[in-house]
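Record type: monomer structure entry
Structure origin: computed from sequence
Chain ID: A
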Amino acid sequence: MIFYHHTLKPILNRVGSMPVAILLLLLLSVASVIGTVLQQNQDQADYLHQFGPTWYWTFRALGLFDMYHTWWFLTILGLLMFSLAACLLRNTPRFLQEMKNRKGTMNENARKHIEHKFDLTFDDKEKAVASIKESLPDWKWMETKVGDVLWLRGDKGRFHKWGYITVHAAMLVILIGGWMSVQFGFRGNMAVPEGGKESEISFLKGTGIEYLKMPFEIRCDDFSINFFSTGAPSEFRSTLTIIENGKEMMTKDIIVNEPLLYKGVRIYQASFGDGGSAITLNLYRLNKKGNVDVAKARVYSMFEDPYSDVSLELKDFRPYNIENMAAAGEPKDFKDMGPSVDFVIRGKGLTPVLVRSFMNPFIINGKNQGSYMMISKTGDARDFETFLLGLDFSEPKEWQLFQAFVHRLPTQQGATQEDNLNAFRASLDEVYPEGRPSDLPMLGNRVIQALKVLPDMPWPFVPVLEDYDQTYYTGLQLAKDPGMDVVWIGSGLLVGGLCIMFYVAHRKVWVKIQEQEDGQVKVEVTGLSNRNPVAFEQEFDDLEKQIKTAYEQGVKV
């Protein structure tokens, strides 16, 4: 007890004081604002691009990229919890005692300084007491007798201090819930291909990537996706099976905002992408033979050309490419340009570029413009530029026609346009012996375009998407928040406590009843309220009339 009174109690009084609590709340608020404005746990390159090297290293040294796990943030949080706990330990016993014990009398000096008061005179003491209680029927009354004076103490809302206790306790519970989430919770990403399973999540911590193995596996049994006419996904759905210790525990479909819950871990549908689709490319050789080779690979793998030192690193596959084909100022006209595959092409003496090869030719206004691809010299898809290849590579005969025409083109000096035309006609007779194609003029234009473009290509072949066997992966986000339920409980307590604090007023009335020498009964009424004085003033003014009316009408004693 000596240690408590001389050492512990002064510390609790200081830490649990309002100035300390306000200071800690201010520090926590400032830190939370910083954590909200400054995106947490992003890629290092993003931070460097946004802030530059100097501020990047300054913010990193302060731990601002993963602020909620830093020692100083947790210290502020712990001190605030300790301050609230100290405040409750110091004040709760006093509040409980005040609500329990009510002083039934009031001295004359105190009454002089109270605004709400009036005096009445009656003939019958018992009838006067009954009239007062009848006027305030919902109040809690207590009688105290001092000599020949009877005191009545009436209270309504006397348990209002439970609001203060509840609010402080609720804030402590919320902070404890937040601390539990920071210390024991996690949120990470997982990619599961169709038919595959995974048990490890990855997440950014600060500027680095960390991994966490789950105590169970997730298998993606099926993935489906629906699109709007604009090409944006309208809904994507995953059928997931939870496997633990080799046993299938549950199977459920999930969509965005409808997660699966398993042992406190919420599994959200977050994204989707290619899960390693099987891709078939035709490699049209730009040599004298003009032969066509077939390249088979999967997205996220590398294809090495056995006849050259060129390689293709497959990056992505898209079954749909929705583009607005309307001219400027016209209503939107969305069109699906068909499947495409993205790859980076590399080779000795070649600048690596990102290429998007399309399966279908480019057709506009009913006219076939031939196959095309998009090339980004920076490797960024936002910098794609469109290149028409001329030929429609989805029609094998066009490549044969092009090769036959190239071989028949006259090489001697002095060749005329008529000579070139005769070479083209001979090539048509060779490739189309059954008859000329219906779109012969456009075919001629495509061949001429190919003559301009293909010889200048830096690669030994033209890679064109021929076929595919698509496989999706479902992007999942796994989150465990052990403090969430605690925070909800604290939030409910906080709302309840605030309602008590703001809407429950403690109203008190002291009534001094004393018989006079002439036989009359003098009644002195004094009232106080801790909140909403305007409403209490009106209520107190009405009380005088109510007591008189109740007395005149006669109240059963």
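Annotation 1: The two ends are 53 Å apart (CA to CA).
Annotation 2: Residues 275 and 473 are 4 Å apart (CA to CA).
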